[in-house]
């Protein structure tokens, strides 16, 4: 064959990283990669590697041109080798593989032809935590598995069947000791086997190790099992019932959840996927808030001078100042210029709608507090109170609650309506209200007669809302049976989110809002609930500051997946929820809004 002189370069082809071999030689024995063969063979055709967490390993490859008669010509030095970018990269014909398990596609591009191979990567890891002895793995490896159910550790978190984004920060496994004092936590998927040994009753991987595990398990189940034994008599061990969650391929990045730590009076912000502590946005907030979909405006309400009488409940607005990296109070609620409670924004945050005293809506400029003329004051709300508005992401609709007359914060007999909106040359016009959700709704644990807190999905196709059996007040929040229901945004169907709600229990679930993006498989909903977070947040652990206004324990922020392929009448598309990592488990955290982080404006 004739010699070939080919320059070496790095390039991207699709989602593959390409590394080039040494092809600068003029030696006559270098094969011609432009020649046509019956096929290109890559060897090994299938290889299996084991990569411990935090390390890398290598695998060498060869490429051969296979003629029609079966004869082979080695082409390795004339080919470019590629591997899926999530697994590693090539230097010449050697792949360096990082700590992520799964099946990786290998290809060799040899002139006009390409050969394929498969690399199977198994992720492993073993960690000693919480004062566990160095020989913990040996102790569990030689112990006999016992059958006494009273001695089996019981996993308290995560929740069986939960669905998680891939980029959720490290999940803390929590369990009951069941008279054991040394524990082995196994975290496994098809291509991962990671183990933690500890004397504590909770365990959590460090961020890099967790990222490797979550990336490996993405798209399938991650299985949690806890074994326990007594160190003084280590011959017998006992195993928990496995808990399985789904790790999706969804990365919910470039987003933040803004929530109200009501027991502290603060609005907090948590960048999703970040292991960092939540940051303080605004203190001295004593009532509800909202965040614009653009992420740079916040509306809040405050009981001025410590009085929550209607004449002292006022609305204020914050605007993010990118130059200083801080929130500026453009309208201070202490001035009581706008008496109101609930707020919402048009998509770019330049117009605010306020739930005003007396149960009517008004439009305002959130930068100046000036009222914007519209037909809202005479909208067809009848004698009922219009409250709790939410503006759609496309700006064309507002969904809201029509409730009992004079409702302001608490309400009864709420129905969900929507109305169209248009802005023609500065003339703001709202259309006639259209009913979406009207009581009653009969479920396994009662008849629900009150709907409120509606929220549009980011594509406007769905509305999630609260339902209660009785009037809703902070002082009787749990007893009212607050839970979430889902409706098609034109009112075609309504369904209870049974898995999200925890079945028929009353967990005081409120304030639902959506992640700002939708994947091909899931919507994501964030909400506040009184359900236990393992043994970290329970009635027993909650401080007195949480146990007020009818709350029995600290409410926490949770998120749940809504499966798109299960949308429709009669199907529950929800999953058991995941706890939002990073929040204070001993604070009342409510009213979460999911939006763009202000720092990205």
Query: Can you count the helices?
Result: 3
Q: Give me the CATH architecture of the largest domain, please.
A: 6 Propeller
Round the mean pLDDT to the nearest integer and report it: 89
Distance between the termini: 59 Å
Please state the CA-atom Rg, rounded to the nearest Å: 29 Å
Helix content range: under 10%
Question: What would you call the shape?
Answer: globular
* CATH secondary-structure class of the largest domain: Mainly Beta
Count of DSSP strands: 49
Strand content: over 45%
Q: Which superfamily, in CATH terms, is the homologous superfamily of the largest domain?
A: TolB, C-terminal domain
Q: Which topology of the largest domain does CATH recognise?
A: Neuraminidase
* Largest beta-sheet characterization: 13 strands, mixed
Q: What is the count of structural domains?
A: 3
* Structural class category: mainly beta
Poorly predicted runs of 5 or more residues: 1-28
